[in-house]
Design a protein that fits this description.
The complex is a heterodimer of chains A (838) and B (174).
Chain A: H1 2-38, H2 40-44, E1 48-52, H3 58-67, E2 73-88, E3 97-104, E4 115-116, E5 131-134, H4 136-141, E6 149-152, E7 155-165, E8 178-182, H5 183-189, E9 199-206, H6 211-221, E10 228-231, H7 232-275, H8 277-285, H9 290-326, H10 341-364, H11 396-417, H12 420-450, H13 457-465, H14 473-501, E11 512-517, H15 522-533, E12 540-550, E13 553-554, H16 560-563, H17 566-569, E14 572-577, E15 585-590, E16 602-606, E17 620-625, E18 628-640, E19 651-653, E20 664-669, H18 675-688, E21 693-696, H19 697-736, H20 738-750, H21 755-792, H22 801-823, H23 831-837
Parallel strand pairs in A: 3-8, 5-7, 14-19, 16-18
Antiparallel strand pairs in A: 1-9, 1-10, 2-3, 2-6, 2-9, 4-7, 5-8, 6-7, 11-20, 11-21, 12-13, 12-14, 12-17, 12-20, 15-18, 16-19, 17-18
Helix pairs in contact in A: 1-7, 1-9, 1-10, 1-19, 7-10, 7-14, 7-19, 9-10, 10-11, 11-12, 12-14, 12-21, 13-21, 14-19, 14-21, 14-22, 19-22, 20-23, 21-22
Chain B: H1 3-13, E1 14-17, H2 29-40, H3 45-55, H4 71-82, E2 89-93, H5 101-118, E3 121-126, H6 129-133, E4 137-142, E5 145-151, E6 166-172
Parallel strand pairs in B: 1-2, 2-3
Antiparallel strand pairs in B: 3-6, 4-5, 4-6
The chains are: A alpha+beta (838), B alpha/beta (174).
C-alpha cells in the first residue's frame, strides 16, 4: 500500500509546483505592492502635485497660491521636465543623445532621496551656476566624465556628478537618461519657450489631515484650466489596482501548472484504483461499503494534496529567497521577501481543492467494483464482442459529480483571475487546448490501432504499445503537450512583438524623427537632411491641442465616466492639417473634404477615438490650442494603418484654419545607415539648430526590447514550470505503468527479443509520443499567438518556422530522453521470475 | 551467458508455455504467434503463423485480442507461439493449471500432438497425475528434490497421491 502511494507523489509534486508558483508570485507582488504603495509619496516625491504641459497662467498660479495657505501646505517646490538633446560642448567630440531633462530647485525632493555614485550626499549647490547631475547611461554613451561640459540647446552645463538612484524613479519606460539641472537654468536654455514639450509640476507637502480637503478644493477651483491635480493617495490606489491585476493574471499561469497536476492526479487515481481492485473487492467482501472505502481513499487523496501544497509553500519560500538573492537591484529597496499569509492560505486551499476535484470522478469507480471479481479471473476492462471497451452509461451520481467538478473549476479560475469573465475565458481556453490534445492522442491511438502493416517488428511493437491496456498515451500527450504549448506560445508571441516594434528593420519606414523644427528653419533643415541622406524630406506641420469640450460638455476628469478615459481625454494631441488622405488611411464614415481650404473648422478623427465621451460623426469638439478655443465639427472618421505609417495623427484638420496657429514641423526620415554616421548627422544638425530634437527609433526599439525581454523572461520562467510539471507527469505516468512494461518486456524476452530490439521499441514509442505532443502543442501555440497578436495587440502575425520546429524537436528529445531513461532498468530484469510471479 | 545470448538461445531452441498464458494483450492471436518469428527475422512468418493457427484449430480467432479469447483458446495460441520457431525443447509450466479438465485435456493432447509432429522434447510440469502418467519419463519432486524417476513402462502408480508439495515432471521424448 505504502509503496504504491509513493508513486503517486510525482503527481502531488506537480500540485506542489503549481501551489509553489502561485504562492511565490502572489507573495512577491503583494510585497512589492505593499512597499511601493507605501512609498507612493516617494514616487510622487510629494503629497500633492499639480501639473501642466503649458506655462502656468497667472490665473492658475494665483488660485494655487491662495489655496496653498501655510496652515495647509508645509512645503512646496516646482519642477520642469522636457525631452531634449545633449551633446558634448567640445566640438571635436562626437555624439549626441536624447535625454529627459529635469529642472529642480530646493527643497526638492519633498519625499525620497538621491543616491549619488560614490556615496556623496546630493546638494542643490551641485546644480548652481550651470551644474548638472546625470544618469550613468549618458556618461557611458557620450563617453563623458565628471567635470566634462555638455551643451543643451544654447546653454553649456558642467557635469558635477552622477546618480544611481533618483527620487520618484519608478523604473518605467524612458526616451533617454535623466539629467538634473537647476530649474532656473532651464528657463535660460530656451527650452521652455513656445512649443517645446515641457511638463511643469508644482509639488506640495501637505499637513496631516488636510490632504483630502486641499485636493478637493484645488480640483474644484482649477477646473477647466487644463491642469491635473494628483495626490499620492490616487497613485496609491492606481498602483494597487494595477498590482492586483498583474498578480491575478500571473497566478493564472500558476493555475495551469495546478490543473496539469490535477490531470495527473486524475489519471493516477484511475490507474491506482484499477490496481487496487483486488484490495477493494476484499474490503467489500469483509463488509466495507462503497461509501466507506471511497471516503478512505478520498482522505488519502486529500492528505496527499495537502502534503503537496505544503511542499509547494516550502518551494515558494525557497523561490523568494532566490529572488531576494538575485533580484534585489531590480526591486524596490526595503521590500520584504517573506510569504504573505493570504498567499499561503490561497495556495493551500487551491492545492487541496484541485486534488479533490480531479480525483472525484475516478474515485467513483470504487462503487462499481464487485466482490465477485475475486472469484472470476477477469482481465482488464469489460470488452464487447468486437474488441471495443464497452462504454458504461453514465449514471446520475457521475453526472452530478462531473457538473460539480466543472463548477468547482469555474470557481477556482474566477477566484484566481479576480473576475468571472476572465476566469471563464481562461478555463475555456485551457479546456479547448486540453480537448485538442486529448483528441490528438485519441486519434493517434485510433490510427496506430489500424497501423498493422508496418514492416519493422520493433516499430510495430512500439506503435502497438501506445494503445496497450492502461496506457498513459492520452495523459502524457496532454501533460507534455500543454507544457510545450505554453513555452512555444510565449516564444512565438515574443518573436512577433519584437518584429513589430523593430520598425528599424522595415526599410521603407522612417527610423528617425526630427521634432520641434521651427517654421523659419524649414529651408535649412530640408537642405541639411537632403545632404546627409540624399532624399528631400517632407516636413509636416503640427499643432498641439487638448480637448476642452465635446458637444459643449466640458471635459471634467473628476467625473467618473470621464475618469476612466482619462488617458485619452486629458492628453495633449498633436494635430496636423492637409487636404488629402495619406496612403495608409482609409475613410470609415462620413465624407472627406475636398482639396480647397475652408475657414469653417472641420476635423477627421481616427476610428479609435470614436465613442470617447460620446464622440462620433457630427460631434463638435472644442480644442484648446495654446489657450485659444476652437470648435470643429467631426465630418469624417478615418482608420490609420499604424504599421505602415510614416506618421499617424488621431486628429486631422481641414486646411484653412490652423495655418495661423503657432506650429512646429516634424520630419520623419530615414537617417544614415551606420551608427557613427547617424551620430555625426545628429551632431551636425544640433550644432546648427540646437532647438531640434531627434528621436532615434533604433534607440527606442532597443529600450523596449530590453523591457520586453525582462517580461518574457519572467513569463518563460512560469512556462518552464508548466513544462517541468509535464515532465514530472511523464515520469509518473511511466512509473505507473511500469509493471505492465516489465511484464511485456519479460514476455518478449522469453520469445527471444534482444536488448537492441527492446531499446528501439522504447525509443520509437516515446519519440512518437513526443512528436504528437510537440505538434499539437505547436499548433495550439500558433493559434494562441495568432489570436493574441491579431486581436489583442492588433499587429500582423509572423509565422516563425524555426521556433516551431525547434519546439517540436525539443519536445521529442525531452520525452524520448525522459521516457527511455526512466524505463531503461526494465530491460535488465530477468524474465522468468517476473512471469512466474504473475 | 549474457542476457542477449540467453535471448538468442530462447529464440531458437526453447519454446515456453505458461500456466497463465502470458500473451501480449495489445496484439491479436495471429500477431502473438508472429512475434517470435519476427524477432528471429523469419521471412515467411505470416504464412507460418497462419499454419500454426490452423494447427491449433483457431483460424476463426486470428484477429481476436487475448481478452476476447477463452482460457483454452489463449493457451492454444500460446502453444502455437511456442512452436513458432521449431524449438528442440518445449518447456510447459502447469499449462493446464488454469483450465477446466475438458479444456486442459484438449490443450495437453494438442501439445503432445504438435510435439510428435515437429519432433521436439516436451518438458511438462504439472500437478495432474493423469497427465503425468502419459509422459515417457516421469520425475517426482518433493520440496525441490527428485523423489522418484521412472520410465513410463516401470510406472506402478507408487507416487502416492495427495502429497501437497509434490510436483510431477513428465518428460515425453520422441
Amino acid at each position: 500500500m505504502r509503496s504504491s502511494w509513493r508513486r503517486l507523489l510525482f503527481f502531488f509534486l506537480c500540485i506542489g509546483i503549481g501551489v509553489g508558483s502561485i504562492v511565490a508570485l502572489r507573495s512577491t507582488i503583494q510585497n512589492i505592492n505593499r512597499t511601493v504603495a507605501g512609498e507612493a509619496r516617494a514616487l510622487l516625491t510629494a503629497d500633492v502635485q499639480v501639473d501642466s504641459t503649458r506655462p502656468w497662467k497667472t490665473e492658475t498660479l494665483q488660485t494655487i497660491e491662495r489655496l496653498a495657505r501655510p496652515g495647509v501646505v508645509e512645503a512646496r517646490t516646482e519642477t520642469i521636465e522636457a525631452n531634449t538633446m545633449v551633446r558634448p560642448a567640445d566640438t571635436a567630440r562626437e555624439g549626441a543623445m536624447m535625454v529627459e531633462l529635469k529642472g529642480i530647485e530646493p527643497p526638492y525632493p519633498l519625499y525620497g532621496d538621491f543616491k549619488l555614485t560614490g556615496g556623496r550626499a546630493f546638494d542643490h549647490a551641485l546644480l548652481a551656476d550651470g551644474g548638472a547631475v546625470v544618469a550613468p547611461l549618458l556618461m557611458e554613451r557620450l563617453n563623458l566624465r565628471v567635470g566634462d561640459r555638455v551643451k543643451i540647446g544654447e546653454s553649456t552645463f558642467e557635469i558635477r556628478g552622477q546618480f544611481d538612484y533618483e527620487p520618484g524613479s519608478g523604473g518605467g519606460f524612458r526616451l533617454g537618461p535623466r539629467v538634473f539641472v537647476a530649474r532656473s537654468a532651464i528657463e535660460a536654455t530656451g527650452l521652455t519657450g513656445f512649443g517645446s514639450r515641457a511638463r511643469r509640476r508644482i509639488l506640495f507637502k501637505v499637513r496631516e489631515g488636510e490632504l483630502e480637503g486641499f485636493v478637493r478644493t484645488l480640483r474644484g477651483e482649477l477646473k477647466g484650466q487644463l491642469v491635473t491635480v494628483n495626490s499620492y493617495k490616487d497613485s496609491q490606489e492606481n498602483l494597487s489596482e494595477q498590482f492586483t491585476r498583474t498578480e491575478n493574471y500571473l497566478s493564472l499561469t500558476g493555475l495551469i501548472v495546478l490543473v496539469l497536476g490535477g490531470i495527473g492526479v486524475s489519471s493516477v487515481t484511475r490507474v491506482f484504483i484499477e490496481q487496487k481492485k483486488q484490495t477493494i473487492a476484499v474490503l467489500k467482501c469483509i463488509g466495507g461499503t462503497g461509501r466507506q472505502i471511497t471516503a478512505a481513499y478520498l482522505a488519502q487523496v486529500i492528505s496527499l494534496g495537502l502534503l503537496g501544497s505544503l511542499l509547494g509553500v516550502a518551494l515558494a519560500r525557497g523561490a523568494l529567497l532566490l529572488v531576494a538573492h538575485y533580484f534585489t537591484q531590480a526591486l524596490p529597496p526595503g521590500m520584504s521577501y517573506g510569504l504573505t499569509r493570504g498567499a499561503i492560505a490561497q495556495g493551500l486551499g487551491l492545492g487541496v481543492l484541485v486534488s479533490i476535484l480531479f480525483s472525484a470522478l475516478p474515485l467513483l469507480r470504487i462503487r462499481r467494483i464487485k466482490p465477485n471479481m475475486l472469484l472470476r479471473d477477469e482481465e482488464g476492462d469489460v470488452v464487447d464482442g468486437r474488441g471495443r471497451r464497452r462504454r458504461r452509461r453514465p449514471d446520475a451520481l457521475r453526472l452530478l459529480t462531473g457538473a460539480l467538478v466543472v463548477l468547482g473549476l469555474v470557481f477556482l479560475s474566477s477566484w484566481q483571475a479576480g473576475s468571472i469573465r476572465v476566469g471563464l475565458i481562461f478555463l475555456s481556453g485551457l479546456a479547448v487546448t486540453a480537448a485538442l490534445l486529448y483528441g490528438a492522442a485519441f486519434l493517434l491511438v485510433l490510427l496506430v490501432r489500424r497501423a498493422r502493416n508496418i514492416r519493422s517488428f520493433a516499430l510495430r511493437q512500439a506503435v502497438s504499445s501506445l494503445h496497450r491496456p492502461g496506457n498513459q498515451t492520452r495523459v502524457i500527450i496532454m501533460a507534455v503537450g500543454l507544457g510545450a504549448f505554453v513555452v512555444m506560445a510565449i516564444q512565438s508571441l515574443q518573436t512577433n512583438l519584437l518584429n513589430e516594434i523593430d520598425i528599424s528593420r522595415r526599410a521603407q519606414l522612417p527610423n528617425m524623427f526630427l521634432i520641434d523644427i521651427q517654421t523659419d528653419q524649414k529651408q535649412g533643415v530640408e537642405n541639411l537632411i537632403e545632404g546627409a541622406t540624399g532624399v528631400r524630406p517632407e516636413l509636416i506641420p503640427t499643432v498641439r491641442a487638448r480637448i476642452y469640450a465635446i458637444d459643449g460638455r466640458e471635459i471634467d476628469l473628476e467625473q467618473r465616466e470621464m475618469r476612466e478615459q482619462r488617458g485619452r481625454l486629458g492628453r495633449e494631441y498633436v494635430v496636423t492639417y492637409r487636404p488629402r488622405l495619406e496612403s495608409n488611411e482609409t475613410l470609415v464614415a462620413g465624407r472627406f473634404w475636398d482639396a480647397t481650404p475652408s475657414t469653417e473648422p472641420e476635423v477627421s478623427i481616427e476610428e479609435g477615438m470614436r465613442g470617447l465621451a460620446g464622440l462620433d460623426l457630427g460631434s463638435n469638439i472644442t480644442f484648446d490650442i495654446v489657450g485659444r478655443k476652437l470648435t470643429a465639427r467631426v465630418t469624417s472618421i478615418r482608420r490609420v494603418d499604424w504599421r505602415n505609417s510614416r506618421t499617424g495623427f488621431m486628429v486631422l484638420f481641414r486646411p484653412g484654419v490652423l495655418e495661423s496657429a503657432p506650429q512646429m514641423l516634424i520630419a520623419p526620415i530615414n537617417g544614415p545607415e551606420s551608427e557613427p554616421a547617424r551620430s555625426r548627422f545628429q551632431r551636425a544638425l544640433l550644432d546648427q539648430y540646437p532647438n531640434i530634437s531627434v528621436i532615434d527609433v533604433a534607440e527606442v526599439v532597443s529600450t523596449i526590447s530590453r523591457i520586453l525581454n525582462n517580461v518574457t523572461l519572467a513569463v518563460s520562467f512560469l512556462g518552464g514550470f508548466v513544462l517541468l510539471c509535464g515532465v514530472l507527469i511523464l515520469v509518473g505516468s511511466i512509473a505507473m505503468t511500469k509493471y505492465q512494461r516489465i511484464y511485456e518486456v519479460a514476455v518478449l524476452k522469453t520469445l527471444g527479443a534482444k536488448r537492441k530490439v527492446l531499446l528501439v521499441i522504447l525509443f520509437v514509442e516515446y519519440g512518437l509520443l513526443g512528436l504528437v505532443a510537440g505538434i499539437v502543442g505547436a499548433l495550439a501555440a500558433l493559434a494562441l499567438s495568432y489570436a493574441v497578436t491579431r486581436f489583442i495587440f492588433e499587429i500582423p502575425w509572423d509565422f516563425s518556422l524555426t521556433v516551431i520546429l525547434a519546439g517540436i524537436a525539443a519536445t521529442i528529445a525531452l520525452v524520448t530522453i525522459v521516457g527511455v531513461t526512466s524505463s531503461f532498468n526494465v530491460l535488465t530484469r530477468k524474465p522468468l521470475a517476473i512471469l512466474r510471479a504473475q | 551467458m549474457s542476457e542477449d545470448q540467453l535471448a538468442e538461445l530462447r529464440s531458437t531452441k526453447i519454446g515456453f508455455v505458461f500456466q497463465s498464458f502470458h500473451l501480449i494483450p495489445s496484439l491479436t492471436a495471429l500477431e502473438n504467434i508472429l512475434v517470435p518469428m519476427e524477432i528471429a527475422g523469419l521471412v515467411d512468418a505470416p504464412e507460418r503463423a497462419r499454419q500454426l493457427l490452423r494447427d491449433v484449430d483457431l483460424q476463426a480467432r486470428a484477429h481476436h485480442y487475448p481478452s476476447q479469447l477463452s482460457g483454452g483458446e489463449k493457451q492454444r495460441v500460446a502453444i502455437a507461439r511456442a512452436f513458432a520457431n521449431e524449438p528442440s525443447i518445449m518447456l510447459a509450466d502447469e499449462p493446464t493449471g488454469n483450465l477446466d479438465s475438458r479444456n486442459g485435456r484438449h490443450v495437453f493432447e494438442l501439445m503432445v500432438e504438435m510435439n510428435r509432429r515437429r519432433g521436439a522434447t516436451l518438458v511438462l510440469v504439472t500437478h495432474d497425475h493423469e497427465l503425468a502418467a502419459e509422459a515417457s519419463r516421469r520425475l517426482s519432486l518433493r520440496d525441490g528434490r527428485v523423489a522418484s524417476d521412472s520410465d513410463n513402462e516401470a510406472r506402478a502408480g507408487s507416487d502416492g497421491g495427495g502429497r501437497k508439495t509434490e510436483e510431477a515432471i513428465g518428460v515425453a521424448s520422441s
